[in-house]
Specification:
Structural class of chain B: mainly beta
Number of strands of chain B: 16
Radius of gyration of chain B: 30 Å
Strand order of the largest sheet of chain A: 6-5-7-1-8
Shape of chain B: globular
CATH topology of chain A: D-Maltodextrin-Binding Protein, domain 2
Order of helices and strands of chain B: HHEEEEEHEEEEEEEEEEE
Oligomer: heterodimer
Structural class of chain A: alpha/beta
Number of strands of chain A: 9
Order of helices and strands of chain A: HEEHEEEHHEHEEE
Shape of chain A: globular
Number of helices of chain A: 5
CATH superfamily of chain A: Periplasmic binding protein-like II
CATH class of chain A: Alpha Beta
CATH architecture of chain A: 3-Layer(aba) Sandwich
Amino acid sequence: MPIMSKISVLMLAALTLLGVSLAGAAGDVAVVVRADTPVDDISFADVRKLFMGDRQYWNSSLRITVLIYAPGARERDVMLKTVYAMTEAQFQRYWISKIFRLEASTGPKIVYSSTMAAELVAAVPGAVAFMDSAIVPKSLKILKIDSRSPGDKGYSLH
Amino acid sequence: MFRFKVSWKLWPVWAATVLLGTPPAVYSQSPDSNQTELIQSLREKIDQLERRMAQMEELLDARTAARAKPEIKPDTLREPIAPMGGPAHPMGTEVRPSELSTYPSLKIAGFGDLNFATTDVRGSRSGFNEGQFVLHLNSNLASKVTFLGELSLSARTDAGTGTPPATGFNVEVERSIVRFEQNDNFKISFGRYHTPINYWNTEFHHGQWLQTTTSRPEMTQFGGRFIPVHFVGALVEGAVPARGLNLNYNIGVGNGRGAIISRSGDFGDNNNNRAWLVSVFAKPDHPFGLQVGASLYRDKITPTTGLNAREWIRSGHIVWRKENPEFIAEFANITHETVGARPATFNSQAWYVQAAYRLPGVAALWKPYYRFEYIHIPKSDPIFQGVPSLAGSVVGLRYDISSFAALKLEYRRQRRPDQQRLNGIFGQTSFTF
């Protein structure tokens, strides 16, 4: 029994350390869309327009649906810091105000996990989301930003 | 081993203990604050689980309906990393997957405020007053068709008087707009708008909580006569990238001012002469946060006095759309050209500059602000008879008590020709729901 206990404790410690190291190694954040979305490379300014609701159509027949993580996710923190340059409270007020002005007919859709984000991006035409670049499914397209992919030097979302 | 033996000879004692001893013990657990919190916490947990279950079911439906089955390896993806719920608002970002294609999708939100005022003007009375109770309705009628409605209820000064007695509140349809969208470059809408020739008028509408200060600048006051606050007609709008300038435009045609010039021609145009407007503003990529715009408005006015006049409004604004610092400056020049035997031209100007700064760090809930405003109206302008000129300042402090409610306190000083100078303290709590 004592030996088994020690092994269990060691395994638990190893898993914990592994988990911590994986969490610490979180990579760049990717902007992902469905494979059939008619865009491959966009500027950072365009990313900002997409997620701030200033650009709402990929083209006349394809509306953009923005997916945003619920509070607490790293992707949301990166997005608020780099794209919106806002605090959580400012972000909330921004969207209430934008819909009140009829500049947008609806706010971003909230996702609660990367699984949900990936499934919705794949299912909803025109959807776009932030995801940790290390876990993006192959079926989704990662957009280049200013001709740089996640992991490239100078990539802006991390 | 110790064994506990029950003596059945003592059953009356046991019975008495059960009957008499238990109730006080039960009653001693009557709902106290801890228990209430526990129940509340459990209820919230159940609500969260139910919401999550509903979302899972909806997600399952969405996946079934999807044309292409995504190639996803769930084992490579992380588990949920964020709690359900969080800050949510009917007009905010809390949207369920099923709402992606549900029409009509009516959402109702609102704004409210309660005010306190005390001034040194002779004859004035200090006290509280109800601000506006505003309902905001938003509904997608199709993927490219949207309706927006804004209703306000304002307290009446003549409530209870007359026969039949006047009601306590006036109900007003502030905005009612149906919009058809082709793409980002072209959208056309019809309805009753806040005239898009003034930044404040189209940025904050009736949402007192959205604006930093307790009140609007005098030049764009609701019920005021300087700027035509409302516009009934049609509007074409859109945005073009323009090499990073991000030019937005509005082109509108409508009824213009009514016979009472503070009112729009809701029932029809009173002089069979349409008003038109053109508005352009830029929100450049760099520097992020800057907005610069200009507008031109033209109308023919036929007020109740019977005097006709052509009206030109030229306006401009420059705004830094952030909070550290926040900066808003607007200017408008209104030209009235009277039509008749003795044509004459009158020019009136109004402008204001407002600056605010959300404090950093632990003081981030506090936002001090200052505004100076100025209005010059020639006394000889027959259209603006009775509209006084003004020079005034407000200095105040806003405290965001929650994500959706704020407290504001400001000192206001105003000077108008031929009137007593005003010094006043104004307080407000404003919120959205």
